[in-house]
């Protein structure tokens, strides 16, 4: 076969959302920390990201994670998260996919009933506890990075929508949380184009009016996710449509979005620590979240969330580039 590039991957899905876990073919990415690696990759490896995420090897809602050696002594593996939208500081469904792939491929020492894997992510240390039986990764609980509220009950002026009420929280990425009712749309997948357009308009308006910035993680300075909360949702069980730049929906219940939502509910006094919060995705799949302790981020009160979900291996791939391929970095359609 003619090929100038060979990338090996374990393809998985987490509650419906793909994670292409890259296991070989990418050299060590320069950087003294996970976030420095992300920043380096944003500048120098965007073509590799597009090669793996966009058509014809990926699709419009593709997501992945590049395995790396850890930059820190207390972690087993490093991870750089990639998706059609860019390089993420943290990805919950991606971490569940990575932990499942590492166990299923025997790339960590597998211990039953629980295998603990410590991951060096750009947003910080994330611990994944994999429930394993008979060698099978049954479910994964991740202990996420500190999550906090940036704005509660704010408003933003959005062209075509008027003044939209929202709250903004960080759970590994920044999430604007908006009631679907507030933009006059139903929780209905046949209206996904309208919901996505509303989400993109809200993200743009927030970023233009007042961009959020993480006080401790360099280069985390925009809102590219809008969590549209379905009517009837409560502080224990919520359904949502997660609209993501540049125009797709998370198929999973979104681990970092669930963390942000729990931080918001906690800040409102509606979700105490050690209490289950079930979050349901646009396709009906579920994560169970919990807040396990309190901490701070800069001068803000923050919480440590856990997220439990499942992932399955869907394929083993070697992604090739024929030197005569007219689309060496794929394309977006
Ligand atoms: O699960 O955290 C997540 C996530 C972020 C973007 C898509 N999924």
Automatic annotation (TrEMBL):
SUPFAM superfamilies: Diaminopimelate epimerase-like (SSF54506). This is Proline racemase. Belongs to the proline racemase family. InterPro entries: Pro_racemase_fam (IPR008794). It comes from the Bacteria. It comes from Pseudolysinimonas kribbensis.
